[in-house]
């Protein structure tokens, strides 16, 4: 057969959301290919649908295809992959890539496919060197090499545990059963099938449909303790357990500084975020930032020292998203004065925001969360709850933040058996615009000499902590004060 598909006219529809039909259409016109494979079109459709189903069922994200041909199978599988799914298609013949690539380029799923031309064995070596591992492998190329592909993949850990290898034509027109066959493909497949059935690393089933379809699953070696540590809790590894996909969060004081960093971190981890601030314009700016990163967000203007505002904040979130999983009560103020001079006005104002306001937020969010039987509250306390930062004088701030820790401990204990966790984060001195005020700037050198880490905290130093406390990974932690201060409280 001449190795060219030049008689095919590339007439790809403007809305190519049906790439499978596009290829079938092209193949119908391509007499050379159609005659090359018996009943190819109808077989293709069944094969494509089966591969697609396998991807869905195995929830594969990384797929390897050995033997791509027209790209029909590759595109069928790509359609079933999630947006961040990837498929490497190995194909010997460059002209087949030339045929398939324009179709991939027109398909919304084509960008998931990376075609590597050349001998598949060489591509496998390249992928193994790069440390690639796959959830599903489809072997559908030169039959005499099936065993080599299989051995290489298994010996080089290229199939993840629980991953699936799918083998096409494994019965090879039943020739594998014929004792006296001299057909080299039949013999190669017989040897392959025998090898796989004796391989303790896998389970296999040969489905005697069409030309035979073998499904192979990698199983754990017997010496492995197959428990949650090995498999992950509910099958999710640690970083997946820290993801917040589908969760609804709010952050108060999120217009700048620590709150803004919290809003970004929670959104990056997958949560929808209500950005709450006294300054509505600042909250809106942060929402715009989140939108640019593809994070679902709303802004709410609220003064958390006012009970009506707090209730409106909670009601707005519930009416918009129906639930609240994560509440970050971060808004706070700090005024400096020597204790003998501290006015009751300063004391009351600080406590109104830092302690009373935080309590009102905890209570209003907690009522929703207790009804849900699930919630994560993360309050922003301060290192000042532990030590007396100096030389600046800030009695009201220190005592209000000590109150936030006790509030957190009490709520944490009280609500633990109803699915609501309450923890707090105590940052050290954070490098925000606030500390660059004229009165505080001269103190920075003095503070630095008190910090073993030798630098101030950046807001980004706190982001992993809020994600951890917001996630299921911290379910056994409640009433905890997580101190992040570069070691300052130790000196
Ligand atoms: C049966 S077709 C694959 C069909 C494809 N998997 C599908 O579902 O649409 C086999 C393909 O394997 C390719 N092939 C054969 N030997 C190969 C090798 N050593 N390395 C890479 N590809 C090879 C052939 O060029 C051919 O395109």
UniProtKB/TrEMBL annotation:
Methyltransferase is among the record's keywords: yes
Q: What class of enzyme is it?
A: oxidoreductase
Domain of life from the UniProt record: Eukaryota
Q: Which GO terms describe its biological process?
A: carbohydrate metabolic process; fatty acid biosynthetic process; methylation
Listed A to Z, the keywords are: Fatty acid biosynthesis, Fatty acid metabolism, Lipid biosynthesis, Lipid metabolism, Methyltransferase, Oxidoreductase, S-adenosyl-L-methionine, Transferase
Q: Which Pfam families match?
A: adh_short_C2, Methyltransf_3
Pathway named in the protein's UniProt entry: Carbohydrate metabolism; D-arabinitol metabolism; Lipid metabolism; fatty acid biosynthesis
Q: Which GO terms describe its molecular function?
A: D-arabinitol 2-dehydrogenase activity; O-methyltransferase activity
| InterPro entries linked to this entry | NAD(P)-bd_dom_sf, SAM-dependent_MTases_sf, SAM_O-MeTrfase, SDR_fam
Its Enzyme Commission number? Answer: 1.1.1.250
- Similarity comment: family membership: Belongs to the class I-like SAM-binding methyltransferase superfamily. Cation-dependent O-methyltransferase family.
The identity of this protein, by name, is: D-arabinitol 2-dehydrogenase [ribulose-forming]
Q: Which organism is it from?
A: Neolamprologus brichardi
